[in-house]
# Entry
Amino acid sequence: MPGGSERAPGRPKGANPPRGATPQASGGADGGPPGRPKGANPPRGATPQASGGADEGPPGRPEGANPPRGAAPQASGGADERPPVDVAVGVLIDDRGRFLLTSRPTGKVYAGYWEFPGGKLEPGETVDAALRRELHEELGITIGPATPWQVELMDYAHARVRLHFCKVFQWQGEFQMREGQAMAWESLPVRSAPVLPGTLPVLRWFAAERGYTGATHRD
# Structure
């Protein structure tokens, strides 16, 4: 056209694109987002995005991996789910009606607490046989007849125990504290302290049998 600058034939400059035409990205020739070339590292300080969808586990620790070091273990159940350990316990009573308590040796759970002597049953062992063995091993005596008296279930933090209490009125031999424990002949109220929790029911049973009222032991 005479007198003006020439332009490409076809669509006039500034005209709208034809109806139905697909708009073109303003980025590079590879079709990627403008600004950052395809495959380039993200800008420093950018927050990485999780690769999984909402139904995938949280990113970070693979599924089935061990928990982080230092995580507290979870309890698998209550104390009532623990199988009880059977224990034979001797309630030795002398001709004056006093009963024998011994202290738990150093190095054992509840060391220094006072209890009735005895120990747990070995596989296949009866309560009577276990009591005879334990009292000979701990005290050096040979007991006479052992009369079953009471059974008590106790839950301790370290164990769940079923205590089989037997009264014993006869024995032979001199008392020997073979585990370094102490011994004391007691009556109500008990002077030795502290008293093992599993001993407290026995003191209540004695109080009921003997018509005793008042505190059964010192706190």
